[in-house]
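Continuing from the previous page of notes. For each protein in this section, the sequence appears first, followed by its structure tokens. Read the first protein now.
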Amino acid sequence: MNDKMDKFVVRKRSGYVAGNETDDREPTYKKRGEIGDKTDCTPLQKHDPTYPNQEVSEADEPQTESKQHESEISPTGLSWRKYKAENLDCDYVQLISRREADELYNKCEEHLVYNTGKLAQVNIFGKWHNIPRKQVAHGDPGLTYTFSNNCIPARPWIPFLTEIRDNISQETGHTFNFVLINRYKDGNDHMGAHRDDEKDLVQSAPIASLSLGQARDFVFQHAESRGKKATRTISPITIELRHGSLLMMNHPTNVYWYHSLPRRKRALLPRINMTFRQMVVKGDDRDDTVNTKEDIT
């Protein structure tokens, strides 16, 4: 991938199926130890015990069914897989090759500077807690994202993030003005169950989630089937988010379904996730409308 990232969107390889264990689209780096935010990476062989796409079958990690519809081929040749359930609508694709994903991961490690101090915490029931991962946001001037009683300001776009955003827009037909980036050092770093339904977000817009590094399970739970006060029995849906994959969470998924990234003890390598979003622009009369690529061309 050159600086122009002109090969960012690649065509589907013949016979490829998202989630197929025999496919070779996994990270080719291996964690050797960290100094600050830098990670030393060396080639990883498939016989290595830390090979990142190993199956996880721990007792506290129950397997759940994933409801899948048949794949659809986009005009660019990518094979999209539809995940559909009651009020859940998601699309998954292997967006870029392993080599391109490796290079993009390394750019993130080199250029991203994560939040510290209060910006790296959330306030829950009046107490401040450190976020169990690293986090930073970039976006258009003046945008902020408020969640868990903390307001995260957008840092300016930097060139490689702009290129990623524009290429995802080209593939999906949606525009984005903000990206929230999370870095998970290993399977102990996690994200609790929540819905992205804050007032800062354009409610009907999709969220585009690009994953780099360690493959991790992404779990959806219906709001009416969670916890002791559950009123219905609805099976959770788990999607494995792989190195170089893109998940589109379409409306109204975030209205009815919680999502989480649970701890995984056998996930030994880092993961970087970018969620591209469309934020409400204050003073914009179109707060509840979705801007597509066609709206600005």
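Done with the first. The second protein uses the same format. Note its length before scrolling.
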Amino acid sequence: MSSHAHRIPVDPLPSQGLIARHDRSVEQEKLERRRQVPFHMHINLELMECVYLTSAMLQEIPYMAAAETEGRRRLISKSFHHQLKYHEKQPLVGPPESMREHVVAAAHAMKKGKWKACRDYILSIKAWDLFINVDAVKEMLARKIQEETLRTYIFSYSEIYDSLNLDRLSEMFDLPIKTVHSIVSKMIIKEDLLASLDEPTQTIVMHHTKPNKLQSQALLLAEKIGMLAEYNEELMKLKHAGPWNVHSQQQGGGAPYQFRQMPAWHGQGGKYRRQGQGRQGKPHGMGQRRGLES
């Protein structure tokens, strides 16, 4: 459900307002006004943005915890990451006031595994009261926050623990033991979590085969160095080949440039001059004429 809600457009809907355009005629403007939705049927834009950011948080925070040791991560929501970076750049962070600040504060609480604080931040947003069935929506949000915070907690601390007890996780996140078992089983089946379930003891046994953060950074550095070495080799090949060879290879062979033949130099009496020119670098005819005239 959160993945579908994440795809809704955040920009104003075309049927909820007119965009000022100078190249529009009067008839076109009247036609567009007829297509407008009545004001009492408009969807609140703050509610749309709240749904978008909340659904992005429910997807992005567990993924960030799972991909923390990876060098490259894909962005699920650029606008959500923009809000997180803007919040981190603030020199002084106070209590959340706006809707965006509440979502960012809830995201930071989810990172630490504090599902109650995350739930309180999200449910304190006044935009949720615009729904018809407010209680059902808030109950669904609280359940999703509990489940995603559980996944985030397991992803974040899977490298520290050798095993986790399902009963203990059920008490920490106030979820039924069957729900915790189902969430962990899905994570293992999808290979998001390298672990196994021990049914008699009801524990999660971790398999520490994943490289830690230092090892993954070293692998990323080695990969970048390899790419840089390949790039330098290509540059050296271009440098030794010369521009004419590169151009001839691109054109399919053959000499692309036609150089004119350089004149031959002949020596007379220890002095060299070009063929067809005199001692002063001028044609022989001009020197002979001057000698005859003198």
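What the second structure shows: Confidence is low (pLDDT under 50) at residues 246-251, 253-262, 281-294. Strands lie at 163-165, 195-198, 203-206, 265-268, 271-274. We return to this in next week's lecture.
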